[in-house]
Prior knowledge:
Number of strands: 3
Oligomer: single chain
Number of helices: 2
Helix content: 10-25%
Low-confidence stretches: none
Number of domains: 1
Amino acid sequence: xxxxxxTYEPVVSNKGRPCKYxxxxxxxxxxxxxxxxxMPPDGKGDFECTLAAMExxxxxxxxxxxxxxxxxxxxxxxxxxxxxILQASA
Length: 90
């Protein structure tokens, strides 16, 4: 018999290659500053592409997960400030 659920969060499976970025960590609702530059393990940056390209990448990943995201640009040093907008459970 089918069971009723109060809430449900779908598990996002990677169809194809694994994610390059830790989206599940980034989309936890905390405010994060992501720096442009050489990626870890050097620890100098979080992404290597342009700010605009990374914005598109983040928005696409958020949309795939059903999440809204706020993104702001910083230029000195180049960075994106992001925050996932989590919906309150009903």
